[in-house]
Each structure stands twice: as structure tokens, then as C-alpha cells.
Amino acid sequence: MSCIGLFTRMSTITSFVLGIYLIGLPHNFGKVDHSDAILVFIMGVMVLSRCGDSLSVDRLLLRLLSKKNQSPSIPAASGEYTWPIMVAWLIMALVFFAAGVSKIGRSGLEWVMSDNMAILLIGSNYGDSPLTTWGLRIAQFGWLCQMLAAGTIIFEIGFPLALISRTARSIIVPVMASIQAGILIPMGISFAQFMIVYLFWVSWDRVSPVVRAVGALGLIMILRPDWVNEAARITGFERDMELLIYLGLGGFAFLCLIYYAAFGALKPNNRT
Description:
Layout: H1 6-24, H2 37-48, H3 57-65, H4 83-107, H5 110-113, H6 116-127, H7 134-138, H8 142-158, H9 166-182, H10 184-187, H11 192-197, H12 209-223, H13 225-235, H14 239-266
């Protein structure tokens, strides 16, 4: 391995080691948060992978240091670039499956059939910072809250099917991504860490540059909705504009995810 090739590997190892401490530190001062531990596992996978062979600082440095009119060779197709993606899928599937089983195991069907979801929606409007007051309105309809709770359980427990079925993958992954992104609207709870891991489900070799740019912008809006709020404040728009931008760009990003997940399901022979 060249000295240049060590850059990404060392930075990944550093992120993994320091991430264990940095991400784990807040867990020592109160509620253990289940939404960010997945990043530690993913960084551990990246440490063992050849993640610097294509889009990386290593690759850029190789281009800059190469002789004129020469560029680094394109990496050949290999299982070395497949197994990290598969492991990321497996980790996410285990996280969702464990969450669904935990809900049923600890609360039984009462997690769905009781007023649990309505109480969560109401409490979030006074304890968190939702983008809208939709949670209070939804909480008025018990049957709707129960449907939302049931859907959450079904897709969490059924998420491992995305590992073995392309058809299930084209449905379950976009739906769960939409659920997690949508929770921010009525409840103010962000799953930004999971939004990053969803990138492993996209067939990037089939995404055009325009879609990548707009989809990336949508992802940024999901990860940092406060930036949208600041932009709306500077431009003089009200908070409704923040919601519009969030829904518009975020929705576009998930439509792209749905399209390419379905494309992979319909074209299994061409899937990388």
C-alpha cells in the first residue's frame, strides 16, 4: 500500500476509534440513545474495507500527482467492494428487527392497540421541536395512531426481508427511510444518523450527476433542518417555507431511493 493509500485508511481508523469515545460519551449522562450506535459499527466496517479506492482524498491525490494526461486506473469489479455494503445492510436490518421485537416483547400488542402512540405524539410537541403541530391533530384520531404504530412494528420486524428479496427491498427500505425522516415533522425527533446509512442502499452507478446533486441537497436538508430554518429567516420566509423545502427536497431524495431500489429489483442481472 502506498503512502497516499494510507490516508483514507488512517482517517477511517481514527474516526472509528475516536467515534467510540465521542459518540459513547453522551450515553454516560442520562438516557442511552439507540440512534447513533449504528455509526460506530459502520465505521468499523469501513476500517476493514477498501473504501479509499474510488471517491476519496487518496484518489484525488493520485490524480494530482500522476503525470499529465494520466489518471489512476479504475478499480476492477470485486467482492471487496460488495461485502462492506452487505454488512451495512445486515447491521441496519438487525437494528430494526431488534427494535420491533423489543416493542412487542416488552409491551405486547398494547404498544399498538393502546393510546401509546397518541401519548408519544402529544408529549413530543411539548418536549421536542417538531416542524409542525400535526402530531397534536393526529393524536385526536385513535385509529390513525394505532395504524401508525402497527405499520412501524410491521416494517421493523419485516426489515430483514430486504436482505433476501429484491422486491421486498424496493418497498421496505424506502418506506422505513420515509418513516424515519417523517417523524421529524410531527414529533421533532431526528434520525440523521440513519439517513447516512441509507446511502448504502442506493445503486450509485445508476444515479445521474443531476440526481446525485439534488438528492444530496435533500439529504443535507434532512440532516440539518436548522440550516433550512436559518435560510428561511434570512430570506424573510415564515416557518412554512422551511417545511416546504424539507418536504420538497427530502421527498425528492426518497423518490430517487425508491426508483433505484426498484430499478435494482427489476434488473437483477445488472446489479453490482
